[in-house]
Design a protein that fits this description.
Blueprint (H helix, E strand, L loop, with lengths): L1 H13 L3 E3 L2 E7 L4 E5 L14 E4 L3 E4 L2 E8 L10 E6 L5 E2 L12 E4 L5 E2 L12 E4 L6 E4 L2 E4 L4 E4 L6 E3 L6 E2 L12 E3 L6 E2 L12 E4 L5 E2 L12 E4 L5 E2 L12 E3 L6 E2 L12 E4 L5 E2 L12 E4 L5 E2 L12 E4 L5 E2 L12 E4 L5 E2 L12 E4 L6 E2 L9 H6 L1 E5 L3 H4 L10 E5 L13 E5 L2 E5 L7 E5 L4 E5 L3 E2 L6 E6 L2 E6 L1
Parallel strand pairs: 3-6, 4-7, 6-8, 7-9, 8-10, 9-11, 14-16, 15-17, 16-18, 18-20, 19-21, 20-22, 21-23, 22-24, 24-26, 25-27, 26-28, 28-30, 29-31, 30-32, 31-33, 32-34, 33-35, 35-36
Antiparallel strand pairs: 1-2, 2-3, 5-6, 12-13, 13-14, 37-38, 38-41, 39-40, 39-42, 42-43
């Protein structure tokens, strides 16, 4: 038994049946006499093949006086084969496995025969020297245009060699595949045509040289980590057919300063814009119903955020670490403020909590040491979970003024955490909408009122709480106002703000 186990372990470690002319092979079928190119596993989870230079994989070979046909290149077959410079895949091969040539840094060209019908994920990823992939014109499944790999009718862009600097995607393409431009750090420009409807997971991951991207109106979904790590990206225009922004879609885009989220978007995924420290303002449209966990966490440069009035859930740590935020309005559509949602927003001075919020989670506003005003619009005080009782710091409880609806002070003074506030005042919240309109955003930056997406012909009126007009005009910025509460009216709607 011990000898048997030793033999079995040895076979498992080898992960190949025989070696011929420097390549390792597995026998797939003795009946059909077929083999695949594989690797030698010299340590667990380590792969080795001593192929180097320009190689042409044979279509047939003889082993132990038997002729075998090479029909596939197995997964990890040439994994990290840095000495490999070019490879020609014969017509006998029908499949190329997952990560078959992953991280072959010296590889400059690949020629694929006419019988390959399947290519695994990340087959050529991280090949930092790869210039072109050439596909036999008679191949029924794949094609190549200017060295870029497509499916046969060029409706799916499968893989772009990492050395490409500029790419114009042809109008035939409807989808950009998983990891299609993964790690193309030298890519400075990409044109996505109106024919594209989907951008896959990791599609442009790590394209640090990209500075701007326009996602056309035809695109309906942006996959997970699609543009994650595009650290040079400064602006993104998202087309008005996109309905979902995937997890980590733009995370780590440190240079991103401007993004417009269209009214078509209904959900913003986890970590979607996390770490976008250059982002200064965001307007979340009324179409959005959910903001994912840590969606904007670490956006330290964010000074203004407008949350649309259809949002019902704001995820854990959604705006955590947004140091530049000075004020935030949580619309009436939100029912729960979850744990640490706005934690460590060190510059936050004012928070307005909509009238439908029923509960506030632990640490929701922890680290918001400059908070001076909280406007709670609900007639019923939002409750804290007894198991998550640390919502506000002692400094906030002592220094911050809590404003509640007229006639509700006693109710707030009867429950935690509100009864712990030293300063509670009543005020009239009646007749005030959360959001002026579907498209118009209102924010306060450096004590000035900023109006986004308003028609230049729209009349803007600002009143103090006594009803006195302090501004009337068509400007997009209203400044020079003293600290206090104001009502701003545009068209037939109004909103209460604090400076």
């Amino acid at each position: 038994m011990l000898v048997f186990l030793m033999i079995l372990t040895s076979m498992t470690a080898l992960a190949y049946n025989f070696k011929s002319d420097g390549l390792y092979y597995n026998i797939l079928s003795e009946t059909d006499r077929t083999v695949e190119v594989t690797y030698y596993d010299y340590k667990n989870n380590s792969y080795y093949n001593d192929a180097y230079g320009d190689i042409e994989i044979p279509s047939k070979l003889i082993y132990d006086r038997k002729t075998y046909k090479v029909t596939s290149i197995g997964k990890y077959a040439f994994y990290k084969c840095s000495g490999l410079t070019s490879v020609t895949i014969p017509n006998s091969v029908t499949s190329i496995g997952i990560s078959a040539f992953y991280n072959c840094s010296g590889l400059t060209s690949v020629t694929i025969g006419n019988s390959v019908t399947s290519i695994g994920n990340s087959a050529f990823s991280n090949c930092s020297g790869l210039i072109s992939i050439i596909v036999d014109e008679s191949n029924p499944s794949f094609s190549s245009i200017e060295g870029i790999l497509y499916n046969n009718d060029a409706t799916t862009l499968i893989y772009c060699p990492i050395t490409k600097k500029t790419v114009t995607i042809p109008n035939s393409v409807t989808s950009i595949d998983y990891s299609a431009f993964y790690g193309c750090s030298g890519l400075t420009s990409v044109t996505i045509p109106n024919s594209v409807t989907s951008i896959g997971n990791y599609a442009f991951y790590g394209c640090s040289g990209l500075t701007s991207v326009t996602i056309p109106n035809s695109v309906t979904s942006i996959g997970e980590r699609a543009f994650s790590g595009c650290s040079g990206l400064t602006s993104v225009t998202i087309g008005n057919s996109v309905t979902s922004i995937g997890y980590y879609a733009f995370s780590g885009c440190y240079g991103l300063t401007s993004v417009t989220i269209p009214n078509s978007v209904t959900s913003i995924g986890k970590y979607a814009f996390s770490g976008c420290s250059g982002l200064t303002s965001v307007t979340i449209p009324n179409s959005v119903t959910s903001i994912g966990e840590r969606a904007f966490s670490g956006c330290s440069g964010l000074t203004s955020v407008t949350i649309g009035n259809s949002v019902t859930s704001i995820g854990y740590y959604a705006f955590s670490g947004c140091y530049g935020l000075t004020s935030v309005t949580i619309p009436n559509s939100v029912t729960t403020i979850v744990q640490s949602a706005f934690s460590n927003c060190r510059g936050l001075t004012s928070v307005t909590i909509g009238n439908s919020v029923t509960s506030i989670g632990k640490y929701a506003f922890s680290g918001c040491s400059k908070l001076t005003s909280i406007y709670c619009q609900g007639t019923k005080p939002p409750r804290e979970n007894p198991r998550e009782s640390i919502v506000f710091s002692e400094a906030i409880l002592k220094e911050c003024t809590l404003y509640v609806p007229i006639g509700c002070q006693a109710a707030y003074e009867a429950v935690d955490p509100w009864r712990n506030f030293w300063n509670i005042e009543e005020m009239d919240f009646s007749g005030i909408d959360d959001i002026i309109s579907d498209n118009i955003g209102i924010s306060v930056i450096n004590r000035a009122i900023h109006i986004d997406n308003a028609d230049g012909n729209m009349l803007v009126e600002v009143f103090n709480l006594s009803g006195k007009s302090v501004y009337r005009g068509h400007g997009n910025i209203v400044d020079g106002l003293s600290t206090g509460i104001y009502i701003i009216k545009i068209a037939d709607k109004s909103m209460k703000i604090k400076i």
